[in-house]
Amino acid sequence: MQGTVDGFSYGLVTPLVAYLMACLGGALGLRCTTRSMLVGNSWRPGWLALGAAAIGSGIWTMHFIAMMGFKVEQSPIHYDMATTFASLGVAIVMVGIGIFIVGYKGTTGAPLMTGGAITGLGIASMHYLGMAGMRLNGKLEYNTLTVAASVVIAVVAATTALWAAGQVRGFLWSVGASLVMGLAVSGMHYTGMAALKVHLHGTAAPTAGDSPASLLAPLMIGPLAFLLLAAVVVMFDPLMVMGKPVWTSAENKPGVPARELVTHPPARRPSFRTPRPLGHHDRTPQKR
Predict the structure, then answer these.
(1) Cβ distance 79 to 134 under 8 Å?
(2) Dist. CA 109–CA 28, nearest whole Å
(3) Is this prediction's pTM over 0.90?
(4) Of 46, 178, 249, 273, which has fewest CB within 10 angstroms of its CB?
(5) Backbone angles phi, psi at 43, to 5 degrees
(6) pLDDT tens readout for residues 200-226
(7) Do 68 and 36 touch, CB atoms closer than 8 A?
(8) What is the 3-state secondary structure (H, E, C) of 23-67?
């Protein structure tokens, strides 16, 4: 028997809040990525790791909030704790690999394509691993073409967001990039949910796992506290908020071309005029 799936049981509340959480994680993570391009090698891994953790926490929290509005009318839904938290680790690790590639190799050409693809695949892997953690009296089945479309959406939007973050521009530029990142996560999520069909078992057997309410506290408190801490770091770092490099030592910043950051006064053009012969009226009278 096919179950009746409702992905919007709370109306537009869960999609909007989930999108805002994805944008928050994306904004913090992308600003950290931009900041890493303006510092030396000693600080760069820390900023990139912070960015990966922020994006991973944001998309994981987004997924959980969106799943709060997901219901199968004929069967209660439970979650396996280990699989659910494993999806967080997968998100942070795969997003981190993509961000590190972009942070060290640049946001053009093959590094951007590779980093964007890995980041998008990390978003998709988090989603489907989190779905694998669901426990209900039935079996999940996906449409292959729709699943492929959800992965393409994640990869394209994540690549676009990483490209925008690598432009080393102001805060508003990264806000736009975070909106794209939130669109990548939300679009991938609901496209993947559109590919889902639930086939229920004939018997009403009890389902294992924890209920969504029992997972709410650890899911929300931990990632939200981390995102709040990352937001404080962003707020108290004017360089990261404004997206401006350190002008005095730009030549020593790997990854930021010094010729683009250090301005030099224009050189004077040499004069090639031939000297005028000294005429009768140009002679200076000598004192006697």
Answers:
(1) yes
(2) 24
(3) no
(4) 273
(5) -95, -20
(6) 876 655 555 555 666 666 667 777 788
(7) no
(8) HHHHHHHHHHHHHHCCCCCCCHHHHHHHHHHHHHHHHHHHHHHHH
> What is the predicted pLDDT for the residue at 126?
92
* Exposure of 94 in the CB half-sphere (CA atoms within 13 A): 23
- Among left, alpha and beta (phi > 0; psi -120 to 50; other), residue 106 is left
- pLDDT for 32: 85
Q: Which two tokens stand for residue 194?
A: 């559109």
DSSP string, the chain: -B--EES-TTTTHHHHHHHHHHHHHHHHHHHHHHHHTTS-TTTHHHHHHHHHHHHHHHHHHHHHHHHHT-EETTB--EE-HHHHHHHHHHHHHHHHHHHHHHHHH-SSHHHHHHHHHHHHHHHHHHHHHHHHTEE-SEEEEE-HHHHHHHHHHHHHHHHHHHHHHTT---HHHHHHHHHHHHHHHHHHHHHHHHTEEEEE-SS-PPPPSB-HHHHHHHHHHHHHHHHHHHHHHHHT-HHHHHT---GGGGGG-TTS-HHHH---PPPPPPP-PPPPP--STTPPPPP-
**Residue among 241, 100, 122, 230 nearest 181 (CA):** 122
Beta bridge partners of 273: none
Residue whose structure tokens are 């910043």 = 253
Closest alpha carbon to 127 in 88, 81, 79, 182: 88
Going by C-alpha positions, the residue among 189, 179, 181 that lies closest to residue 162 is: 181
- CB within 8 Å of 123: residues ≥ 6 apart: 59, 91, 95, 154, 158, 184, 185, 188
